[in-house]
Amino acid sequence: MTHGPPWVRRIALAAGLVSLAAVAAALLCQDAPGAAPTLDGPDSLLAAREFAVAERRIGEYLRANPRSMTGHMLRAQMALARDD
User: Fold this and answer.
1) Model's pTM, two decimal places?
2) Are the C-beta atoms of 73 and 57 separated by less than 8 Å?
3) How far apart are CA 7 and CA 18, in angstroms?
4) Are 53 and 18 in contact (CB under 8 A)?
5) How far is residue 15 CA from its own chain's centroid?
6) Closest by CA position to 60, among listed 81, 26, 34, 82
7) Contact 8, 16 (CB under 8 A)
């Protein structure tokens, strides 16, 4: 029973190793799942006039939930409350 020329086996082995390396790299480079951003806290930040922190948190939430009416309303409230 022959397996063909040795160079064919080497190419097949190399292709298999490259495929395994690509899968391993894809798995290792995935973003680690973090906690989903929430709207807990921006109300108190707006009341304390901590606009930079509130804006960052609301922005993070809206990137994760772009259709959130509550997030957009908080952003609007923040814009109206700012003096600048």
Assistant:
1) 0.55
2) no
3) 16
4) no
5) 31
6) 34
7) no
At 28-70, the pLDDT tens digits run 555 445 677 888 887 788 788 888 888 998 999 999 999 999 9
Task: Give residue 50's identity as a one-letter amino acid code.
Answer: E
- At residue 3, φ and ψ (nearest 5 deg) are -110, 10
Dig out the tokens for 20 from the structure: 């395994």
Amino acid identity at 31: D
Amino acid at position 29, single letter: C
Angle at 39 between CA 33 and CA 56, to 5 degrees: 75
3-state SS of the chain is CCCCCHHHHHHHHHHHHHHHHHHHHHHHCCCCCCCCCCCCCHHHHHHCCCHHHHHHHHHHHHHHCCCCHHHHHHHHHHHHHCCC
